[in-house]
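A reminder before we start the practical. When you read a complex entry, don't treat the lines as separate problems. The point of joint prediction is that each chain is placed relative to the others, so the output describes one connected object in space. Small molecules and nucleic acid strands, if listed, are placed in the same frame. In the example below there are two entries. Take a minute to note the order of the lines before looking further.
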Amino acid sequence: MSNRLPQPYDDIPGTTIFDAHMAREGYHLNQFAMSLMKAPNRERFRADERTYLDTWPMSEDQKQAVLARDYNRMMALGGNVYFLAKIFSTDGLSFQHAAATMTGMTQEEYRDMMLNGGRSPEGNLYKKEGE
Amino acid sequence: MARITAGVATSHVPAIGAAIDLGKTEEAYWKPLFEGYEYVKEWIRETRPDVIFLVYNDHATAFDMNFIPTFALGCAEAFKPADEGWGPRPVPTVKGHPELAAHIAQSLIQDDFDLTIINEMDVDHGLTVPLSLVFGQPEEWPCLVIPFAVNVVLYPPPSGQRCYDLGKALRKAVESFPADLNVQVWGTGGMSHQLQGPRAGLINKEFDNEFLDRLVDDAPALAREPHIRYVREAGSEGVELVMWLIMRGALDDKVAVKKRFYHVPASNTAVGHLVLENKGG
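Here is the predicted structure of the whole assembly.
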């Protein structure tokens, strides 16, 4: 049973708020990602991702999400986007590219959406609106 | 005596820093954004602050998940531009004002703001992009800077009210410093943006413009807006806007708007910018 209390932001669609509860769950995932700020660690990760991940006490789900570069899954497992950014930077990908993958859009579609003023708040503020 | 004369607010999108560093400011994508900062470049040459108290947030650069200070005051002599994974930005080292910073620490903590004091810290785009937007690309930054890092990465960040009240206590601290210094307070981050999840790319022009209006004329009530309004309406990263309330709290109740600018997009983000001067009262 979860000891997490319901929060007012639980009904924001398509959004994981990185709160203290998520941060606890994602601690090792985020610290792994942070380690990629150092070039020697990036090299070790690139050389053998699985072996490098196994040096961190992360859950198997978290490791699989990293290997699959499934950013939504990583965030559901406690990852924070500023930490996860170290992973896509290691892959040579931009923030806009990573954001696009989280929305299911191509990078081009996403870029065009931003050029046209971004995602509208209409229908995107409450989960029940989208139902 | 030292005095706070003006405030500047601006977004601090990393892609803006990259555009400056890579000489892309004249490109069609970026030109309209940089035109919005021409006024402040002229204004800063006239107003010549001695010290900028620069409110920003670290983005998993100086602080990892081991230490997460809510309010961190940079008390060092100097702060190097951080390597955020692709080498440090080619910008000057930031020179602090340790004596004023120590005085502010003494005063704010006695006023019940439990600060974390930082004596060694690299500063990321959150701090250096605003400096580049206002000062361009000088050999040295033309004034001293006290970095003030606010946690807005781990939820909950401090409330808008807490930030606004901290601004007021900051003013009291600065005004009790004996040396004659012209101090500006800058608030950075925002405006609406969400960098994560299926809702990434959210931009809320209505919210942003209401925030800009109310920051000028209705700040005490704006400070009472709860976090949920920011994260729901301005996006999970839009909550950075609470930092602007520290700047606003440090100014007079009535301010003159010297510049207001709003632009979409810079990468994933709506960009907002204000230049405010004290009007007295």
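Discuss with your neighbour: The two ends of chain A are 27 Å apart (CA to CA). What might explain this?
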